[in-house]
Amino acid sequence: MEDIERIHMAIEAIFFDLDNTLLDFNRAERAALQKVLPGYGITPTPEVLARYHELNDYHWKQLELGNLTREQVMQYRFDRLLEELGVSGDGARLSDAYENQLAAGENFYIEGARELLDDLKEKYVLCLATNGAAHVQRQRLHNSGLDKDFAHIFISEKLQADKPSAAFYDACFAALPGIKREETVMVGDSLTSDIKGGKAAGMRTVWYCPKGHPRPARAQMAAIPDKIIETLGELKTILAIG
Fold first, then answer.
1. pTM value?
2. Which helix (H) or strand (E) holds 14?
3. Could you identify which of 18, 97, 119, 197 might form a hypothetical disulfide with 130, taking C-beta atoms 3.0 to 4.6 angstroms apart as the criterion?
4. What angle do CA 168, 182, 213 make, to 5 degrees?
5. How far apart, in Å, are the Cα atoms of 103 and each of 44, 55, 77, 155?
6. What letter does residue 218 receive in the DSSP assignment?
7. Which segments of the chain does DSSP mark as H helices, in order?
8. Residue 165: CB atoms within 10 Å
């Protein structure tokens, strides 16, 4: 793997993914579902929450592959859940209720995220790159205070292109005149979205994979990151700051 520590002086901008990189999305997801599902006759047991998480991941992966539209992802994940549970209902309506609760709900920082951003924002151009729904992500960024940390916030719905597509990253760099792609780093938890997309765009890549999380063998990775970190604080070591 290329050693980013040796080229840290050339880095001008750092892109961060949002969910499960800076904010604990899994925790926020569970909290939102626990509030919304009972209104649709569903008891939010650990098994139900785990199954929704699997379905949600699957449908977002289909978006990344270009097999589904954003609107289809939002509806189909809940259509499938309702079908499996034998509950009648409108998946699109349930999705809207869930998204609204997610936007309004509490946000939880990943350990070290707040301190890391405080250390980096005076030294680098910080950019956020997320595939989440625009109205949800904007509200979560505002509620968490993260909107004040980024010089640029790139939301796929607004750019009309999703990570890991070239169109998404092209739109991002169009807003960063004077910054070369090789002078940027993409930091995220998704090999298929953040790392694959970032590498294809000509960026350095850092995969955030906390200790204990599944880590495929190198030959099975969708993309090979330049660096792997288990804690966000390790990024400062890679950048040789602090």
1. 0.91
2. strand 13-16
3. 18
4. 70
5. 19, 20, 18, 15
6. G
7. 25-36, 46-64, 70-85, 91-104, 113-120, 134-144, 156-159, 166-174, 196-200, 234-239
8. 18
Known catalytic residue: 17? yes
> CA-CA distance, 68 to 76, in Å (whole number)?
10
User: Rounded to the nearest 10 degrees, how much is the dihedral formed by the CA atoms of 165, 166, 171, 176?
Assistant: 120
Distance CA 40, CA 32 (A): 13
User: What is the separation of C-alpha 5 from the centre of its chain, rounded to a whole number of angstroms?
Assistant: 24
- Cα dihedral 138→139→141→145 (10° resolution): 140
DSSP at 23: B
Q: How many CB atoms lie within 10 A of CB 163?
A: 28
Q: Count of CB atoms within 10 A of residue 58's CB?
A: 14
- Rg (alpha carbons) of the chain, rounded to whole number: 18
Q: Exactly one of 3, 17, 79, 96 is catalytic; which is it? A: 17
The pLDDT tens digits for 222-235 are: 889 999 999 999 99
Listing DSSP states for 88-151 in one string gives ---HHHHHHHHHHHHHHS---BPTTHHHHHHHHTTTSEEEEEE-S-HHHHHHHHHHHTGGGT-S
Q: What is the pLDDT of residues 128-180, one digit of tens each?
A: 999 988 999 999 999 999 999 999 999 999 999 999 999 999 999 999 999 99
Residues 6+ apart with CB under 8 A from 224: 1, 195, 199, 218
CB 92 within 8 A of CB 75: yes
